[in-house]
Amino acid sequence: MEQKILITLYVDQVAPRFDLATEVSIVSMADDGRPTEKKTVVLPRASAEQLCHLVLLEKIGTVVCGGIEDEYYQYLEWKNVKVLDSVIGSYKDVIKRLESGMLRSGDIIR
Fold first, then answer.
1. Domains, the chain
2. According to the model, what pLDDT value does residue 56 have?
């Protein structure tokens, strides 16, 4: 079963804060870990509430972000969305870690 992953972006890096992200990448991953579809969504403005709404609308299973306020973290977890927070690194490196199943909260990828 495919899983959808949302990565908050700032240029080509994971956005440092969930509530300030204005661009996200949504990646569909096959069971074997390979990405099957990628799309970028540009938000009209930075808003944690809009981002949470997008996560639920797109049926996202995992969110990858930098810092996130506890209120939004708890809300997403309550909605059965896995949150990998405090991740620092480039989009490409994060995708590689996701493919191998090795991405964890707090990862700093150089």
1. 3-100 (3.30.420.130)
2. 98
Return d(Cα 18, Cα 51) in angstroms, integer.
Answer: 8
Which residues, in sequence order, are bridge partners of residue 28?
A: 4, 37
DSSP state for residue 69 in the 8-state scheme: -
Residues of the chain with pLDDT under 50: none
3 close to 63: Cβ distance less than 8 angstroms: no
* Helix, strand, or coil (residue 56): helix
Q: Where are the alpha helices (DSSP H) in the chain?
A: 48-57, 70-78, 91-100
Predicted local confidence at residue 34, as pLDDT = 86
φ, ψ of residue 21 to 5 degrees: the values are -75, 130
pLDDT of residue 50: 96
- The reported pLDDT for the residue numbered 2 is 83
Rounded distance between C-alpha atoms, residue 96 and residue 42, angstroms: 23
For 28, list phi and psi in degrees, rounded to 5: -95, 130
